[in-house]
Amino acid sequence: MVAAVDTDGDGFISIEEFGAMLDDGESDAMRMAFEEYDENGDEMITTEELCRALRRVLLDEILTVEKCAEMIAGVDKDGDGVISFDEFKAKTATKSS
Ligand SMILES: [Ca+2]
Ligand SMILES: [Ca+2]
Asked: Which portions of this protein are annotated as coiled-coil regions (predicted)?
């Protein structure tokens, strides 16, 4: 455990190393959440993928593609019409703080 976290090999876990370990745990959880939405694993969440995932979770059959596109647009910082992991991460981080 110590060896795995102790990146500079001095036998002690520094605050920086400890922080890096926590960060990894956090992005793992986010990665898993992201993969829930990203069905084909291409690192992008499309409107269709978001729609399908939300219908699965909310059991909301009347959730429209337009509504999903709106949600995508709210997260989609670079405007390419899909949500990348970075955009997803940024959105999740804002929400939890
Ligand atoms: Ca995808
Ligand atoms: Ca984007």
From this structure: none
